[in-house]
Amino acid sequence: MNNDAPILIIDDEPDIRRFVAMSLTAEGWRVQQAATAAEALQCIAQQMPCLALVDLGLPDRDGVELVRELRSWSSLPVLVLSARSEERDKISALDVGADDYLVKPFGVGELLARVRALLRRAAPQEESPQLRFGEIDIDFARRRVLRSGDEVHLTPIEYRLLTAFVAGRDRVLTHRQLLREVWGPSFVNSPHYLRIYVGHLRQKLEADPARPRHFVTETGVGYRFCP
């Protein structure tokens, strides 16, 4: 991802664009602004941004449709900023390819944290065969998981779920996304499988399974893995 590329703010409310732009520029990021989906697509065509912040209530097109079109030809990270707080709205945006979802009104601190996480994930980096978080070490080459130096036995499904979380780190992963990836398309309407196996991972890999720090529930939507 080009470090000189701007962050594109797509919102028809001038006050919101101004607030978000000021918050981002104060941290040293360049920004572009668009008030409509058409204007946003033109900005993207002229200079690919490093991140798009998308409102769902655009005047010329629903933001979910814009995200779906973007995702058909681009891996551009997308953070939805919307007043729509219903679970079905979050799920719709995430299922079509948004990387994260933040409900208005939101604080500057949370906005900047979400932006940093998505840019960190999108930054070019060498693939590492190992990952460490908390007391856990994962050696992907040997398919070994250690906790404080002791090997942890994971079933094949638990290991597949863990790798799906790692691949989507710092993103909200919907129930349907995880079920499709780990169990297959015929299980996307079987969320009880996911609850059981996330519980297994928490028991085996969290310091306090009752207060998970790494496998975090996004209520009604899915989960987020925070290394």
TrEMBL record:
DNA-binding region: 128-227
KW DNA-binding (keyword) present: yes
Sites bearing 4-aspartylphosphate, chain numbering: 55
Keyword DNA-binding: yes
The Response regulatory domain, residue ranges: 6-119
SMART domains: REC, Trans_reg_C
Keywords from the named record: DNA-binding, Phosphoprotein
Residues in OmpR/PhoB-type domain copies: 128-227
Source organism (scientific name): Viridibacterium curvum
Entry-linked CDD domains: REC_OmpR_KdpE-like, trans_reg_C
Domain of life of the organism encoding this protein: Bacteria
InterPro entries: CheY-like_superfamily (IPR011006), OmpR/PhoB-type_DNA-bd (IPR001867), Sig_transdc_resp-reg_receiver (IPR001789), WalR-like (IPR039420), WH-like_DNA-bd_sf (IPR036388)
Protein name: Two-component system response regulator KdpE
